[in-house]
Amino acid sequence: MRFIFKTNYAQDINMARHGGDRFWYGCLILLMLAMPLLIDDFYLGEISYICILAIAGIGLMILTGYTGLASLGHAAFLGVGAYTQAFLLTHGVPFYLSIPIVIVVSFLVGAAIGIPILRLTGMYLAIATLALCFIAEHVFIRWEHFTGGNRGMPVPQPEMLGLSFYDSATFYYFCLFFLIASMLVAINILRSPTGRAFVAIRDSEIAAQSLGVNLGIYKALSFAISGAFTGLAGALLAHYIGYLAPDIFNIFLSLTLLLLIVVGGMGSLHGTIFGAIFVGFLPQLIAICRDYLPSYIGSQPGLEPMLFGLILVLFILYEPLGIYGRWMKIKLFFELFPTYKKQTFKKQKVFTKTDRV
Amino acid sequence: MQLIQLIIDGVASGCIYGLVALGFVLIYKATETINFAQGDILMLGAFVAFSLIGVLGLNYILGFVLTVMIIAVFGFFLDAVVVRQIIGQPAFATVMLTIGLGFIFRGFASIYWGTDIFSFSTPFSGKITEVGGLIISYVNISIIVGTTLLMGILFAFFSFTKIGVAMRASSENQLAAYYMGIPVKFIFSLIWSISAGVAAIAGVLLAPITLVDTSISLIGLKAFAAAVLGGFGSIPGAIVGGIIIGIVEQLCGTYENYLFEGIREISAYLVLILTLIIYPRGLFSDKAEVKKV
After folding, report:
1. 3-state secondary structure at position A31
2. How far is A117 from A110, CA to CA, in rounded Å?
3. CB A59 within 8 A of CB A74
4. How close, in Å, is residue A303 to chain B by CA atoms?
């Protein structure tokens, strides 16, 4: 086991805890940069998609994993980002301007949605965001001037500095760049006073309030920041799919994002990456499983949502900390080798806390 | 005249929302969890009824009763085996768990029964009666009468039977109920079973109107609006909320031209959001009586 002896403040501010971190994350970044040389276009596209999911996952993780506000309506933010991006590019706004505009618009939409419903907690918030998801989907269908309605809307692929998004390697590098940038921003938000306030709200609203955290402002801020990240992911998603239709941004997409953070591990940014890899490869995995199942089950369209639900239920029941939690347990097992105790991660039983105060 | 006609249709569909909302409320009152799979249980009820009545050819009444019993037993074990395990975990876990369960039910239904749209014959389908120029279908009458009867039975059950009073006691205060010797876990499973049974009744009553396919589980989401409007946690509130939502939906559908196109489909969700923003307590909330800690 490694003990870190801190001798100056710079060590606390540094993102990497020790040399090992620096080495392994450096290797990971090099591997990601070399990816277009290693694999073919199809899998490169898949990995770009995983990067996009991870960015959206960061957004939802800040809201749900760190501030403790469940949202079943994040597909709406993806939709806002995607449609804004497509609209701006169609009207001749260059790419390097459209992305900041998308981020600002999604931030404002998040704040606009957050402010009226921040009075709600727990279940009510989940229900309200669920309703918002349906309303947003409907707005995308009916606001034809802006979204093209049911006919859909083509997304122009930008070209700049001689690079085109049609080239999957270029698109991959863009996604990777935005993922790393979002990750750095998210890490820094979460260790700033704002992020600490989010975590305080998650753990106990009453305690946070008595320490001077303004619940309303910070909840709305969390919604807005989460919306901004998800909007950015939406803009990239628009380029990934190339043709927007309102029914992409349905409740199923919101639930996919929730599955992502639950499977990855609530309350950890590592978890968003694990979750995105899992969710991104899930359709492939199901396609492979279909071949091994008897044809009358394997050919059913209902198989996918069923497995989806089953995975969600199994994770909630048996590994609420997700893949990242499992990884921590394995790591701790080897670090403490002969003295590992199972009880370290034992779930604590608590009496049902009442919402009805 | 047209208005009264619309209101009657609205009341009928509102009763269905109300019944599903009643399921939410019963579970919420007792265990403080919201069952997001309520609509999917309704769907299972409709499918089981289809299997019993449409495929096996049982008598309607017999099929109805059997369906409700099957789904009620299913609801009992759903709580006893799965949901009980996560009591004491954050609210988010239950939300995700029940959503996941809903997906499993829907996937199971589409694998087992297929994605076709089914219908089965009921004694009410296709018959109408005219009262003073109003056209009322037997299906609507069956829904309204069925809901009224069910409310009466539930009221009697919770007021006069020992087990009903035990349920109210455990909803009020779990720990005190334990001390009084009430088997709280068993009671909670029983509440899940009643709530599933009510959803199954709603499913069977609804089947002649919407036909049977996996999309009827979306009714569960509209029923949220009913439950919230009535004040989550109030049984009469759920029914009244459901009826209001039903009427609003009918009116929005008819006067769509004066408002904006497509308002019918989202009217329930709009009511939900507005209620939460303006008056989150709901119409019949008992929260005022609970003292602040």
Report:
1. helix
2. 11
3. yes
4. 6
In a domain, B249, yes or no: no
> For A151, what's the count of Cα atoms within 13 Å in the CB-facing half-sphere?
8
Is B7 contained in some domain? no
Instruction: Name, in order, each residue with C-beta under 8 angstroms of A152's C-beta and a sequence gap of 6 or more.
Output: A243, A244, A245, A246
Mean pLDDT score of chain A, rounded to an integer? 83
Say how many residues make up chain B.
293
Q: Sign of dihedral through CA atoms A322, A323, A325, A329? A: positive
Query: Is B32 within 8 Å of A356 when comparing Cβ atoms?
Result: yes
For the purposes of burial, counting CB atoms within 10 Å of the CB of B215, is it exposed (0-12), middle (13-18) or buried (19 or more)?
middle
Question: Could B102 and A309 be called an inter-chain contact, meaning their C-beta atoms sit closer than 8 Å?
Answer: yes
pLDDT in tens, A53-108: 999 999 999 998 898 888 888 999 999 999 999 888 888 888 888 889 999 999 99
Instruction: Report yes or no on B222 lying in a domain.
Output: no
Cα dihedral B19, B21, B24, B29 in deg (nearest 10): -100
Number of separate domains in chain B: 1
The nearest alpha carbon in chain B to A259 belongs to B96
Q: Do A312 and B96 touch (CB under 8 A)?
A: yes
Q: Which residues of B72-91 are buried (b: 16+ CB within 10 A; e: fewer)?
A: bebbbebbbebbeebbebbb
For residues B279 and B232, the answer to whether their CB atoms sit within 8 Å is no
**At A320, is the secondary structure helix, strand, or coil?**
coil
Q: Which residues of A315-348 are buried (b: 16+ CB within 10 A; e: fewer)?
A: bbbebbbbbbbebbeeeeeeeeeeeeeeeeeeee
Band the pLDDT of B291: cuts 50, 70, 90: very low
Output the DSSP codes for B65-124. HHHHHHHHHHHHHIIIIIGGGGTTS-HHHHHHHHHHHHHHHHHHHHHHT-SS-B----TT
Radius of gyration of chain A (CA): 21
DSSP-derived letter for residue B134 is: E
| Residues in chain B closer than 8 A to A60 (CB atoms) | none
Question: Is residue B186 one of the residues assigned to a domain?
Answer: yes
Task: List beta partners, residue A159.
Answer: A164
Beta bridge partners of A244: A153
Beta bridge partners, B118, equal B212
Q: Which of residues 61-100 of A touch B (CB under 8 A)?
A: 64, 68, 70, 72
Q: Chain B neighbours among A 100-139 (CB < 8 Å)?
A: 116-117, 119-120, 122-124, 126-128, 130-132, 134-135, 138
Domain of residue B162, residue span: 14-213
Distance (Å, rounded) from C-alpha B5 to C-alpha B100?
39
Please tell me whether the interface predicted TM-score (ipTM) of this complex is above 0.95. Answer: no
